[in-house]
Amino acid sequence: MGAAVPALRLQGEQRLYQIVARRIARMIEANAKNPDWRMPSERELAEELQVSRPVVREAVIALEMRGLVEVKGRAGIVVLPVRGNQVNFDKISADAGPGPFELLEARLAVEASAAAMAAERATNYDIAVLEDCIAQMEHETDVTLNNEKGDRDFHVTIARMTGNAIIVSIVEALWVQRDESLMWKKLHEHIHAPSVRPLWIGDHHAILTALRLRNPDAAYKAMARHIRNVSNELMEADERGRFAPAFMQADDGKSR
Asked: pTM for the complete prediction?
Protein backbone atom coordinates (compact mmCIF):
# COMPACT_ATOMS: atom_id res chain seq x y z
CA MET A 1 0.00 0.00 0.00
CA GLY A 2 1.15 3.58 -0.57
CA ALA A 3 1.85 6.27 1.97
CA ALA A 4 -1.00 7.16 4.28
CA VAL A 5 -3.27 9.95 3.08
CA PRO A 6 -4.60 12.74 5.33
CA ALA A 7 -7.58 11.71 7.44
CA LEU A 8 -10.88 12.28 5.65
CA ARG A 9 -13.32 14.89 6.89
CA LEU A 10 -16.97 15.43 6.03
CA GLN A 11 -17.44 17.98 3.25
CA GLY A 12 -20.68 19.93 3.40
CA GLU A 13 -23.68 17.62 3.54
CA GLN A 14 -21.92 14.63 2.00
CA ARG A 15 -21.79 11.38 3.91
CA LEU A 16 -18.37 9.99 4.71
CA TYR A 17 -19.03 6.76 2.81
CA GLN A 18 -19.73 8.82 -0.35
CA ILE A 19 -16.34 10.50 -0.08
CA VAL A 20 -14.65 7.13 0.47
CA ALA A 21 -16.58 5.56 -2.43
CA ARG A 22 -15.28 8.27 -4.77
CA ARG A 23 -11.72 7.73 -3.54
CA ILE A 24 -12.00 4.00 -4.21
CA ALA A 25 -13.62 4.64 -7.61
CA ARG A 26 -10.74 6.93 -8.62
CA MET A 27 -8.33 4.21 -7.53
CA ILE A 28 -10.16 1.72 -9.77
CA GLU A 29 -10.21 4.12 -12.72
CA ALA A 30 -6.50 4.91 -12.37
CA ASN A 31 -5.64 1.20 -12.50
CA ALA A 32 -8.19 0.08 -15.10
CA LYS A 33 -5.45 -0.72 -17.65
CA ASN A 34 -3.01 -2.23 -15.16
CA PRO A 35 -3.28 -6.05 -15.37
CA ASP A 36 -1.09 -6.50 -12.28
CA TRP A 37 -3.19 -4.31 -10.01
CA ARG A 38 -5.43 -5.93 -7.42
CA MET A 39 -8.22 -4.35 -5.42
CA PRO A 40 -7.05 -3.80 -1.83
CA SER A 41 -8.97 -5.54 0.93
CA GLU A 42 -11.36 -3.60 3.14
CA ARG A 43 -8.81 -3.63 5.95
CA GLU A 44 -6.12 -2.24 3.62
CA LEU A 45 -8.48 0.43 2.30
CA ALA A 46 -9.43 1.45 5.84
CA GLU A 47 -5.76 1.79 6.76
CA GLU A 48 -4.81 3.76 3.65
CA LEU A 49 -7.83 6.10 3.75
CA GLN A 50 -7.69 6.40 7.56
CA VAL A 51 -11.33 5.58 8.15
CA SER A 52 -13.06 2.75 9.98
CA ARG A 53 -13.87 -0.55 8.30
CA PRO A 54 -17.63 0.05 8.66
CA VAL A 55 -17.25 3.22 6.55
CA VAL A 56 -15.27 1.27 3.94
CA ARG A 57 -17.92 -1.46 3.95
CA GLU A 58 -20.63 1.15 3.33
CA ALA A 59 -18.56 2.67 0.52
CA VAL A 60 -18.04 -0.74 -1.08
CA ILE A 61 -21.77 -1.50 -0.87
CA ALA A 62 -22.49 1.88 -2.53
CA LEU A 63 -20.08 0.96 -5.34
CA GLU A 64 -21.64 -2.50 -5.63
CA MET A 65 -25.09 -0.93 -6.00
CA ARG A 66 -23.72 1.12 -8.90
CA GLY A 67 -22.22 -1.88 -10.68
CA LEU A 68 -18.57 -0.97 -10.16
CA VAL A 69 -17.59 -3.83 -7.85
CA GLU A 70 -18.98 -7.10 -6.54
CA VAL A 71 -18.38 -8.56 -3.09
CA LYS A 72 -17.62 -12.27 -3.35
CA GLY A 73 -17.09 -13.65 0.12
CA ARG A 74 -13.54 -14.77 0.78
CA ALA A 75 -12.56 -13.77 -2.75
CA GLY A 76 -12.95 -10.19 -1.58
CA ILE A 77 -13.91 -7.17 -3.67
CA VAL A 78 -14.01 -7.94 -7.38
CA VAL A 79 -13.78 -5.00 -9.78
CA LEU A 80 -16.27 -5.25 -12.64
CA PRO A 81 -15.43 -4.04 -16.17
CA VAL A 82 -15.67 -0.26 -16.52
CA ARG A 83 -17.13 0.90 -19.83
CA GLY A 84 -14.53 3.00 -21.63
CA ASN A 85 -12.28 2.78 -18.56
CA GLN A 86 -14.09 5.84 -17.18
CA VAL A 87 -16.13 5.93 -13.99
CA ASN A 88 -19.34 7.96 -13.77
CA PHE A 89 -18.51 9.99 -10.66
CA ASP A 90 -21.88 11.77 -10.64
CA LYS A 91 -23.50 8.38 -10.21
CA ILE A 92 -21.01 7.43 -7.50
CA SER A 93 -21.75 10.67 -5.62
CA ALA A 94 -25.52 10.07 -5.53
CA ASP A 95 -26.77 9.86 -1.95
CA ALA A 96 -28.07 6.38 -1.11
CA GLY A 97 -29.26 7.52 2.31
CA PRO A 98 -27.83 6.74 5.75
CA GLY A 99 -25.29 3.95 5.86
CA PRO A 100 -26.31 0.71 7.64
CA PHE A 101 -23.75 1.19 10.41
CA GLU A 102 -24.82 4.81 10.86
CA LEU A 103 -28.35 3.53 11.48
CA LEU A 104 -27.11 0.86 13.88
CA GLU A 105 -25.09 3.42 15.82
CA ALA A 106 -28.24 5.51 16.25
CA ARG A 107 -30.24 2.45 17.25
CA LEU A 108 -27.64 1.52 19.86
CA ALA A 109 -27.79 5.01 21.35
CA VAL A 110 -31.59 5.10 21.49
CA GLU A 111 -32.87 1.55 21.88
CA ALA A 112 -30.56 0.39 24.67
CA SER A 113 -31.66 3.30 26.85
CA ALA A 114 -35.28 2.74 25.82
CA ALA A 115 -35.03 -0.89 26.97
CA ALA A 116 -33.74 0.22 30.37
CA MET A 117 -36.62 2.67 30.74
CA ALA A 118 -39.11 0.05 29.55
CA ALA A 119 -37.91 -2.38 32.23
CA GLU A 120 -38.90 0.12 34.90
CA ARG A 121 -42.39 0.58 33.44
CA ALA A 122 -43.25 -2.84 32.00
CA THR A 123 -46.70 -4.32 32.62
CA ASN A 124 -47.74 -7.94 32.36
CA TYR A 125 -49.65 -7.01 29.20
CA ASP A 126 -46.47 -5.55 27.67
CA ILE A 127 -44.58 -8.76 28.42
CA ALA A 128 -47.33 -10.81 26.77
CA VAL A 129 -47.15 -8.64 23.63
CA LEU A 130 -43.38 -9.15 23.43
CA GLU A 131 -43.83 -12.90 23.84
CA ASP A 132 -46.20 -12.85 20.86
CA CYS A 133 -43.64 -10.89 18.82
CA ILE A 134 -40.96 -13.51 19.49
CA ALA A 135 -43.40 -16.29 18.63
CA GLN A 136 -44.04 -14.56 15.31
CA MET A 137 -40.29 -14.24 14.72
CA GLU A 138 -39.88 -17.97 15.32
CA HIS A 139 -42.53 -18.69 12.68
CA GLU A 140 -40.95 -16.39 10.11
CA THR A 141 -38.76 -18.64 8.03
CA ASP A 142 -35.99 -16.24 6.97
CA VAL A 143 -34.53 -12.79 7.54
CA THR A 144 -35.66 -11.09 4.35
CA LEU A 145 -36.70 -7.49 4.87
CA ASN A 146 -40.33 -8.19 3.97
CA ASN A 147 -40.57 -10.96 6.56
CA GLU A 148 -39.49 -9.26 9.78
CA LYS A 149 -42.73 -7.91 11.20
CA GLY A 150 -42.23 -9.73 14.50
CA ASP A 151 -38.76 -8.22 14.89
CA ARG A 152 -39.92 -4.69 14.10
CA ASP A 153 -42.97 -4.97 16.37
CA PHE A 154 -40.76 -6.22 19.22
CA HIS A 155 -38.51 -3.17 19.11
CA VAL A 156 -41.31 -0.65 18.59
CA THR A 157 -43.28 -2.21 21.47
CA ILE A 158 -40.32 -1.69 23.80
CA ALA A 159 -40.19 1.96 22.74
CA ARG A 160 -43.90 2.30 23.50
CA MET A 161 -43.37 0.73 26.92
CA THR A 162 -41.31 3.79 27.88
CA GLY A 163 -44.44 5.92 27.71
CA ASN A 164 -42.38 8.59 25.94
CA ALA A 165 -43.85 9.65 22.60
CA ILE A 166 -40.57 11.21 21.43
CA ILE A 167 -38.69 7.94 21.95
CA VAL A 168 -41.43 6.07 20.10
CA SER A 169 -41.26 8.45 17.13
CA ILE A 170 -37.46 8.19 16.98
CA VAL A 171 -37.45 4.37 17.06
CA GLU A 172 -40.21 4.17 14.47
CA ALA A 173 -38.32 6.62 12.23
CA LEU A 174 -35.12 4.59 12.52
CA TRP A 175 -36.95 1.43 11.47
CA VAL A 176 -38.60 3.22 8.54
CA GLN A 177 -35.19 4.41 7.35
CA ARG A 178 -33.84 0.89 7.77
CA ASP A 179 -36.67 -0.67 5.76
CA GLU A 180 -36.40 1.93 3.00
CA SER A 181 -32.60 1.92 2.80
CA LEU A 182 -31.29 0.50 -0.48
CA MET A 183 -27.87 0.12 1.12
CA TRP A 184 -29.31 -1.90 3.99
CA LYS A 185 -31.12 -4.18 1.53
CA LYS A 186 -27.94 -4.69 -0.50
CA LEU A 187 -25.86 -5.47 2.57
CA HIS A 188 -28.60 -7.80 3.81
CA GLU A 189 -28.16 -9.92 0.66
CA HIS A 190 -24.83 -11.13 2.02
CA ILE A 191 -26.32 -12.56 5.23
CA HIS A 192 -26.63 -16.33 5.55
CA ALA A 193 -30.10 -16.49 7.12
CA PRO A 194 -30.06 -19.97 8.76
CA SER A 195 -26.88 -19.19 10.70
CA VAL A 196 -27.96 -15.84 12.16
CA ARG A 197 -31.63 -16.38 12.92
CA PRO A 198 -31.08 -18.52 16.07
CA LEU A 199 -28.58 -15.95 17.37
CA TRP A 200 -30.93 -13.02 16.87
CA ILE A 201 -33.95 -14.83 18.31
CA GLY A 202 -31.82 -15.77 21.32
CA ASP A 203 -30.94 -12.09 21.72
CA HIS A 204 -34.64 -11.21 21.83
CA HIS A 205 -35.30 -13.86 24.47
CA ALA A 206 -32.50 -12.34 26.58
CA ILE A 207 -34.02 -8.87 26.24
CA LEU A 208 -37.44 -10.24 27.18
CA THR A 209 -36.03 -12.01 30.24
CA ALA A 210 -34.47 -8.76 31.49
CA LEU A 211 -37.74 -6.90 30.94
CA ARG A 212 -39.72 -9.64 32.66
CA LEU A 213 -37.42 -9.27 35.68
CA ARG A 214 -37.90 -5.47 35.55
CA ASN A 215 -34.09 -5.14 35.52
CA PRO A 216 -33.09 -1.90 33.73
CA ASP A 217 -29.34 -2.60 33.69
CA ALA A 218 -29.79 -6.11 32.28
CA ALA A 219 -32.27 -4.80 29.69
CA TYR A 220 -29.82 -2.12 28.57
CA LYS A 221 -26.99 -4.64 28.21
CA ALA A 222 -29.15 -7.23 26.43
CA MET A 223 -30.39 -4.70 23.87
CA ALA A 224 -26.89 -3.30 23.31
CA ARG A 225 -25.52 -6.83 22.87
CA HIS A 226 -28.20 -7.61 20.29
CA ILE A 227 -27.46 -4.53 18.19
CA ARG A 228 -23.74 -5.31 18.35
CA ASN A 229 -24.47 -8.84 17.16
CA VAL A 230 -26.41 -7.44 14.19
CA SER A 231 -23.52 -5.12 13.39
CA ASN A 232 -20.99 -7.95 13.65
CA GLU A 233 -22.96 -10.13 11.26
CA LEU A 234 -23.40 -7.33 8.72
CA MET A 235 -19.72 -6.46 8.98
CA GLU A 236 -18.49 -9.99 8.52
CA ALA A 237 -21.30 -11.51 6.46
CA ASP A 238 -18.82 -12.38 3.71
CA GLU A 239 -15.76 -13.20 5.78
CA ARG A 240 -17.50 -15.12 8.58
CA GLY A 241 -15.28 -13.31 11.08
CA ARG A 242 -16.13 -11.39 14.21
CA PHE A 243 -14.90 -7.84 13.78
CA ALA A 244 -16.97 -5.25 15.62
CA PRO A 245 -17.05 -1.58 14.57
CA ALA A 246 -15.44 0.72 17.12
CA PHE A 247 -18.74 2.13 18.35
CA MET A 248 -19.96 -1.42 19.00
CA GLN A 249 -17.03 -2.53 21.18
CA ALA A 250 -18.25 -1.23 24.55
CA ASP A 251 -17.93 -3.69 27.42
CA ASP A 252 -21.27 -5.39 28.14
CA GLY A 253 -20.28 -5.63 31.77
CA LYS A 254 -19.78 -1.91 32.14
CA SER A 255 -22.46 -0.05 34.04
CA ARG A 256 -24.46 2.60 32.24
From this structure: 0.75
